[in-house]
Design goal:
- With about 800 residues, this protein is of the alpha/beta class.
- It is built from 26 helices and 23 strands.
- Helix content is about 35%, strand content about 15%.
- The chain starts with about 20 loop residues before the first strand and ends in a 6-residue tail after the last helix.
Length: about 800
């Protein structure tokens, strides 16, 4: 029985993907020859896309297709591929005509065949991978490697020349595109948004990127919203709303939408050619207004809504079920070709309908008359230098971080806001790098004490201004600090900025950095693959300052207390991840300088913004940060002998409380020998066989001993330390204290008490762990417990910590 099309209401006709082209921009810019060649180029892309999904041999169908020519395991996504290559081909025409500098981003990156194919046809792929040469054998290898063990994945992975956006996890294409356009005034970033992708939260928010582009100094983002109607197994929402509603939505976001809709090849080519050209000229007009006339305003930038059938050019029906124009075309449209002779026949007929004998010569090389449609050199989107940003990256001009040092006479007695001097340093980094450095954050840079930056670069704002904005608003159309209350969008902009060869810095509240957990995951995976590609040049590291941390979120309460991002970071490759927990100003400055100079890492810096005790002189901080872990001599008294106890800390508040605990113990037991260790580089705890920063076993044992009790006061969840150090010799004697989800509207000390990282809990724990003290420490434990109860009662009565405890300083 044949598939039956129900009767369609007249108002629904306007959102169908079938028929002759319907377009906002009219015209037929392609003459018959240009139309023929354009369609041929697109057919070649479609042929290659099918070859990648299906073929193991017989790449040009020189003989009838047989089961042994088919891959045993069929993987890939056909549904978006023809639309992606259709867009790519039409962009190429305008790149050649106007000598455009453009890159291509596929939001639905699972349609990678539609991006790989034009990259191969324009020669870049064979230049990067000579074994995928432009001949019969090279084409065979090109087909075989796709979604094949030892080959490449099925998305626009780092192995794809011209790609800086994999598109595996959906939602980030517009924010990546915007970051790429920043400070690249001639660049046009063509960003294809999938209609499934449009349903994600990050993408829905990122339509606002048009409010962050300055037409005078930045490039442009050209969104192409590809409505093919279906996801894996469902219709897409925005493909089914009324035409006027969709247009109103895009206009409401501040875009000027131009529609291209239909399935007829010839008329769709003409409509797309006219529309893309119109959009390019409109972009140029807005930029000219700003650059020549000084009229900096927010344009209603153009965008394209391209509506085509899902799996365009596939058979409409197979075995009495819809294929083209339906969700069945999303992945492998004919999944049983290896075993089903009828499906094999349909595939061969489909592939031959692309007329490969017209497209390739007898040796498998793409015909010259079609090849000439593509740009050459670095104007090819697959070879554009911006898509391999390390090739054009310039090192930052950095000030001497020592000039921002906190100065004090006696360690552990002076307090300072840890992040405020970093703000002054970042201000001067910005001042020296006004075209390749930006700071990003979700409305929190002032809250995080980094507001010194505004002395040289304001927050970017191109919307309406109110008179009150002059009263500390720090807004400017020329601003270089990017703030929006969307961690997704800010992180995406930063990643796009870094991937195109620039530098940046991101700060956010610790509890809400989890919003970008999966974005961090994807960027870490990208970097890990890039480390294995010799042609991918290194880019600047992604630097994340995690502040407003758990132990000083006593005012916001339980919802703002979550140090678990570190657990996420540890899951990723040791080759690309670094975690630093500087406890004071000078160690933070030293760490920040190191991170800003580094390449191909994700550096996570955890440091609170509030007042904290200062421990290390700048010279001491540099040495300590260089080592990443070390004994603090002035806090230790075991010199010349074995310690009774190893007290260790990582993080600002845990360090303060651990130091205070050692004082309590030394006052009660003057002969106790305590070794105090501080950890800044968390990965020092892992064995050197697991992480390049890890200590070897002998160095670890020298610090932590082979058999003495260790109390480790940690910033995050305690089990993370056990996870890192479980293979160490003295791990059985390691007792970790950290955040245990015991929080509310507490004072800082009460919060520490609730989670047993406070000085009293640590001192009582030490008595339980040191054999000698177990026999004589009963009275001391009682006193410590009494002191702890008094502090809690004081907080509940007065709403603040007991002044003596809150004002504790190092006494020695």
């Amino acid at each position: 029985m044949s598939a039956i099309t129900p009767e369609i209401a007249p108002e629904t006709q306007s959102i169908l993907a079938y028929g002759a082209a319907r377009s906002t921009v009219t015209g037929t810019p392609l003459d018959p020859q240009a139309l023929r060649k354009t369609d041929a180029y697109w057919r070649a892309c479609n042929y290659l896309s099918l070859g990648m999904i299906y073929l193991l041999d017989n790449p040009l169908l020189h003989e009838p297709l047989r089961p042994e020519h088919i891959k045993d395991r069929l993987l890939g996504h056909w549904g978006s591929s023809p639309g992606l290559s259709f867009i790519y081909v039409h962009l190429n025409r305008l790149i050649k005509k106007y000598d455009l500098d453009a890159i291509f981003m596929a939001g639905p990156g699972h349609g990678a065949p539609g991006v790989l194919a034009p990259g191969y046809l324009e020669g870049t792929y064979s230049e990067v991978y000579p074994d995928k040469s432009e001949d019969y054998e090279g084409l065979k290898e090109f087909f075989k490697q796709f979604s094949f063990p030892g080959g490449i994945g099925s998305h626009c992975t780092p192995e794809t020349p011209g790609s800086i956006h994999e598109g595996g996890e959906l939602g980030y294409v517009l924010s990546h595109a915007c970051g790429a356009a920043f400070d690249n005034p001639e660049l046009i970033v063509a960003a294809v948004v999938g209609d499934g992708e449009s349903e994600t939260g990050p993408l829905a928010t990122s339509w606002h990127v048009n409010k962050f582009l300055n037409p005078k100094r930045d490039g442009a983002v050209l969104p192409i919203f590809h409505l093919n109607g279906y996801k894996i197994n469902n219709p897409t929402l925005l493909a089914r709303i009324p035409h006027a509603e969709l247009e109103s939505l895009m206009r409401g976001y501040g875009w000027t939408p131009y529609f291209v809709e239909g399935s007829d090849h010839a008329s769709m080519h003409q409509a797309m050619a006219a529309t893309v050209e119109h959009c390019v000229l409109e972009i140029k007009h807005h930029q000219q207004q700003a650059r020549e006339k000084g009229n900096v305003y927010r344009p209603h930038w153009p965008m394209i809504v391209l509506r085509t059938p899902k799996g365009w050019t596939a058979p409409r029906e197979v075995e009495n079920h819809y294929l083209e124009g339906f969700w069945r075309a999303h992945q492998v449209p004919l999944p049983n070709v290896k075993k089903d002779p009828e499906q094999l026949r349909i595939l061969e007929s489909w592939m031959r309908s692309q007329r490969p004998e017209e497209l390739f010569d007898g040796h498998g090389k793409f015909a010259a008359e079609f090849r000439e449609l593509a740009p050459t050199g670095t104007r090819r989107m697959s070879a554009n230098l911006h898509a391999n940003g390390g090739r054009i990256k310039k090192n930052l001009r950095l000030p001497d971080f020592r000039e921002y040092a906190a100065k004090f006479d006696k360690p552990g007695t002076t307090s300072a806001e840890n992040t405020r001097p970093l703000g002054a340093m970042l201000r001067d980094v910005m001042k020296a790098n006004m075209d390749n450095f930006r700071v990003f954050g979700p409305d929190e840079n002032s809250s995080n004490k980094l507001d010194a930056i505004y002395q040289v670069a304001k927050k970017f704002w191109i919307e309406e201004f109110f008179p009150e904005d002059l009263d500390g608003g720090e807004l400017s159309t020329d601003g270089r600090v990017m703030e929006m209350l969307s961690e997704h969008t800010m992180e995406g902009m930063l990643e796009g900025y870094l991937l195109t060869g620039r530098h940046g810095f991101f700060s956010t509240y610790e509890s809400f950095v989890h919003v970008i957990d999966s974005m961090f995951n994807q960027h870490a995976k990208w970097l890990e693959i890039c480390n294995h590609l010799s042609w991918r040049e290194s880019i600047a590291s992604l630097n994340l300052l995690i502040t407003s941390t758990v132990w000083r979120q006593d005012h916001n309460g339980f919802t703002h207390q979550d140090p678990g991002f570190l657990d996420v970071v540890v899951n990723k490759s040791a080759n690309v991840t670094r975690i630093y927990l500087p406890p004071d100003v000078n160690s933070l400055l030293s760490v920040a300088d190191h991170c800003l100079r580094s390449q191909n890492y994700i550096n996570v810096i955890v440091c609170d913004k509030q007042q904290h005790l200062q421990y290390l002189s700048m010279d001491e901080a540099i040495i300590h940060c260089t080592k990443g872990i070390g004994i603090w001599e002035r806090a230790s008294n075991d010199q010349g002998g074995e310690p009774d106890l190893v007290m260790c800390s990582a993080g600002d508040i845990p360090t303060q409380e651990a130091l205070a605990a050692t004082v309590l113990l030394r006052e009660e037991f003057p002969d106790i020998k305590i070794r105090f260790i501080n950890v800044i580089d968390l990965f020092k705890l892992q064995p050197s066989t697991e992480h390049p920063h890890g200590l070897n076993d002998r160095d670890f044992d020298s610090l932590f001993t082979l058999d003495k009790p260790i109390i480790f006061n940690f910033h995050g969840y305690p089990w993370l330390i056990h996870r890192l150090a479980y293979r160490r010799h003295n791990h059985d004697n390691m007792h970790v204290r950290g955040y245990k989800e015991k929080g509310n509207i507490n004072t800082p000390l009460e919060l520490a008490i609730n989670n047993n990282i406070d000085r009293f809990s640590l001192a009582m724990d030490a008595i339980d762990r040191v054999p000698r003290l177990q026999k004589i420490g009963g009275h001391a434990k009682e006193r410590f417990l009494n002191m702890q109860i008094e502090c809690r009662n004081y907080a509940h009565e007065h709403g603040i910590d007991e002044p003596k405890a809150a004002g504790w300083v190092w006494p020695y």
